[in-house]
Amino acid sequence: MRTRITDLLGIRYPIVQGGMQWVGRAELASAVSNAGGLGVLTALTQPSPDALAAEIARCREMTDRPFGVNLTILPTTSPPPYEAYLDAVIRGRVGILETAGRSPASFIEKAKAHGIKVIHKCTSVRHALSAERAGVDAVSIDGFECAGHPGEDDVGGLVLIAAAASKVSVPLLASGGIADGRGLAAALALGAEGVNMGTRFCATQEAPIHPAIKAALVEATERDTQLIFRTLHNTGRVLKNVISDEVVALERRPGGCEFKDIHPLVAGARGRAALESGDPDGGLVWASQVVGLIEDIPTCAELLERMVEQAQAIFDQRARAFRLAPKN
After folding, report:
1. Are residues 202 and 218 in the same domain?
2. Tens of pLDDT, residues 52-102
3. Does residue 313 carry a pLDDT above 90?
4. How confident is the model at residue 324 (pLDDT cuts 50, 70, 90)?
5. How far apart are CA 56 and CA 284, in angstroms?
């Protein structure tokens, strides 16, 4: 299954594991890469650039295949030392950088000067075009179904992927709501050249989160996610639980709320503790609507192999079904 994405990243299958806070660690990233996809470490999961350097070295011990690092540029008045994290990526000889959040323009030139391929994750066509102008090598476009922050336009993947594919000239990854070979086939049919998955990789054997959280993802339906931070214009999609219910209730009260009112509920440390302890109601559990399509907890190798087999079977079946009869 060769596309511009597989050629660009040096991988067998056009399947990328998105960077996920607290989840994008060496265990998962190496498993995805060993399975033929692109595994991705999450820089800000590590408490310091030196810790990221150590995690890169640990991942390299677990795979000899390409892997990447995610660097999410947060809208904060006290930013982490982004450039030092980038320096750790460069020193670690990582060939692929996934950026998200604010524009990566200030880091692109430095990354590319060291031969690093840059993928930027966007939630709109206009942001994808801006990233392309800034010099990224590929774009990952996030539909409204996705976990995390889907933007404020509320455009679903079926429209957004096709719209981006018709405008963007660099290789395109489809992201949000993809769990199996049907999603992979659909993304390719819409004009993408690969897929980026987050939530689906959380429900794999190698994901470094508690089995009870993985079970909660399997048990959830497509109606079991919730949008938070809507009134703060920073929409996020999470698994519906006691914490998300409380956040939404505070946002809906007369007069609304400020971020400081909900910060104790949504703090990252609380979410990390929930993932590690296995308490689905212990903090925010970021998840996409794709939970409605997750039915088991395979290894990464099993997941990727069956995705590709299913996608190939779909294309073969459709080709036979829609083949025109020869003209007389």
Report:
1. no
2. 999 999 999 999 999 999 999 987 778 899 999 999 999 999 999 999 998
3. yes
4. low
5. 27
Do 26 and 145 have their domain in common?
yes
Tokens of 175: 């992201």
Helix 181-190 and helix 157-165: axis angle, to 10°?
A: 40
Residue 326 lies in a domain: no
Domain around 247:
211-277
Looking at 190, 208, 226, which one is the last position of a domain?
A: 208
Kindly list the distances between the CA atom of residue 162 and the CA atoms of 42, 75, 140, 277, 305, in Å, as whole numbers in the listed order.
28, 28, 13, 40, 25
Take residue 57 and report the two structure tokens written for it: 């070295």
Q: % helix / strand / coil in the chain, to the nearest 5?
A: 45, 15, 40
Q: How many residues in total does the chain contain?
A: 328
- Cα torsion angle, 201, 203, 207, 210, sign: positive
Q: Which two tokens stand for residue 220?
A: 């959830």
- Please indicate, yes or no, whether residues 49 and 64 belong to a single structural domain of this protein: yes
Structure confidence by residue, pLDDT tens digits, 264-303: 999 999 999 999 999 999 999 999 999 999 999 999 999 9
- Angle subtended at Cα 215 by Cα 34 and Cα 298, rounded to the nearest 5 degrees: 25
224 and 123, same structural domain? Answer: no
Beta strands in the chain (DSSP E): 15-17, 39-42, 67-73, 96-101, 117-122, 138-142, 172-175, 195-197, 225-228, 236-239
Query: pLDDT for 176-212, tens place per residue?
Result: 999 999 999 999 999 999 999 999 999 999 999 999 9
Looking at 259, 277, 295, which one is the last position of a domain? 277
- What letter does residue 108 receive in the DSSP assignment? H
Q: Rounded distance, CA 315 to CA 327, Å?
A: 23
